[in-house]
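User: I'm curious what two different proteins look like when written out as structure tokens. Can you demonstrate?

Assistant: Sure. I'll show them one after the other, since each token string lines up with its own sequence. Here's the first protein:
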Amino acid sequence: MLRVRMMSSGLEVASLSAEDFEDGTETSGGISVRRLKVYLSTLTGQPRFRQRLLQSGSILHDDTQLTLPMDLSLVLLSLCTPEAEKQSEIHRAIVDDDGAAMDSLLQHPFDPNLPVVEDVPCLCLAAEHGSLKSGQLLFEAKADVGGGATSWMPPLHSASRRGHGDFVRWLLESRADVGQTFTDGAARITTTALHVACARGHLDVLQALIDAGANVNMLPTGSSSLRPMMIACAGGQIEAARLLLQARAEVDCSSADGTTPLLCACERKKLDMVDFLLAAGVDMEKATFSDLFPLAVASILGHDEIVRSLVAAGANIARRWRSPDGMLPLHIACSSGHQETARVLIQAQADLNVKASGSTPLDMANAFGHHDVAAVIMEAMADLPRPKRRRTKGPP
């Protein structure tokens, strides 16, 4: 029999035969000290790195093979705080994904949730570099798979941002929360790992997160937060958007202020994404709560090719912004000084004489000093057919 007792109290921790041990570990190949420690971790709740097994007062090394019968004493070590030099070694081992060095360093043992660089915990650092061997050892040492209490993004976010697919899948298998959120203090935007993967266009990671049950329509809390589809569209990540649609993401979803995927693409000047969304049947007239609609946004920013695509798809060039007497897209382009955008709208038969708050497009171009735009308007007006005068009969 193999008996293990706590050295401090004499309390028996385990008593088993070789057959019992093989059944308990579901592995074969003899009993080594390391394998025994892994087994004991299921009984004590403490990782093997904190365990020391002694026989007759001597510490046994992990690769020592045990021969039954045998009586062993178990000591559980307290966690220590590594000095600066040791922290540098930990950092180097994680970045290089040196499994042997990491295993050795964890034997001291230190808290695996320790930040080794600024406020970045060890597992977050491993995720950032895709250091899978180091990550698995840290997790075995009881590192928090969610990253713990830190201002740094969680491991799943870090691995997703960098496109480390193998690390992401391992985290998910290790029960990382696929819906965990992180708020960037500087940007004040709350995201999930899915949002991050969409922004970077990491399709392998995106698929893994979707397969793990990530909510493709999730809108995190916060006034500045966006849905995954909006993130993909703002970044021009067409294949990510396609994957989201296949996973039943809503093409006409909106944020807290009414922003839509199409508005995101228009604002960021992502022409190919605009064309993709139009082909997917997006509602090109859906506006924000302040009545910003896609054609207005493209006209404000002077994205003439996007204006051309929207108009060709049937966008309403006679739609007014904000009020019944509000500006039309042509007024917006003229007041913003976008000559080519104005030309595109004129070619689409925009009304040159319609007024907004008492002003025609030409009035607005002149009022804001955009004389090049005014010249385009006047040239177009000159080409308009003049109404025929009625002939009046003279005196007999």
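Here's a second, unrelated protein for contrast:
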Amino acid sequence: MATLTVASISLAACSSAGNGEDTSPVAEVSSVANEAHDAAASSAAQALKKAPKFSVKNNATGVSVTKPITVTSDEGDGLAKVTMTNESGGAVEGEFSEDKQTWSTTEVLGYGRTYTVTAKDKNGKSKTITFTTDSPAYTTGVGLSPLPDSTVGVGQAIGFNFSSAPEDRQAVQDAIEIETSPHVDGAFYWLSPTVLRWRPQKFWEPGTQVKVKANIYGLDMGGGLFGDADNETNFTIGDRTVSIVDDNTKTMQIWKNKKLIKTMPVSLGLEVPGRVTPNGWYTVGDQYDQLMMDSTTYGLALDAGGYQTMVDDATQLSYSGIYIHSAPWSVWAQGSQNTSHGCINVSPENAQWYLNNVTRGDVVYVKHTSGGILPATDGLGDWNMGWDEWSAGNAEQ
């Protein structure tokens, strides 16, 4: 009996630590298995959690510089941290939404740059992507007219001058915003491959406020051409000043806000081919205290009857070289006969008065000459194209 008792005690000693804990090999194996199961379960649960989502794919190329890069928390826990750098290590600015569900870039991206974005969600999952933006074959800027904060006449068209010719004209037009107060309807027309204009159907009303934005940065204009920078301008329509030049009477009447304020004698282009002043609407352009009139700039050589003459108080009416300017040598003919090469000659006193009393965008109407109509594509002859043709546009040509 004693032997059996000892065996029983020895067995008890092997299966108990004396404090109620099971330390048998079987128990140890069971504990390790439980820990492994818990770890596996935790790992599996972590694996099921989703990393943040990106608006571009990893290793993407040709990414548009105009669209913000966004990162989104895919499970709704919210984003913990987002960093974005360019290939030089420079940080790109961005901001979180109020609920931390999204993050978006707040600065414009550059052409041909490589960016790396790392995002970590509050659930602990993180992800890193790299992408490269568009690398244009070449770019173009756009110059706008009139200049910002200017006051111009009722005939002023809005000008967009590109350094290179866009192939996708419609995309360019769609990227332009024109805001008028009060509202005015208008339309685009391309005067040349690089010159776009916008004007209303009728002359502006005085006091109209105009804001223009050309949002061309990042714009694919076709043929590998992209816009290199946005541009904007704003202007106000001033007084309604209209000058009427009548070849029958050899006079110019200046009307301001529908009231006649001055009449002056003029001498127009001589009645020979190439010198007759064209009829039609002209828009006042640049103005100069002094200007070299050089016939060779439009193809008339000096030995073929051309000229190089310095004139005073010159007001531009066309890109082809027609000006209202001081002509003391023809005062004797002003009011009675035509002697010029196409310009509107006036006396020194009248030329100075005119320069000081008209402004860019004012309109001049010439009538009763034998010179045909100034082409609408001349540069300052926009109003010589009928509205039906102008409003139909030519973006698809």
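A detail about the second structure: The radius of gyration is 39 Å.
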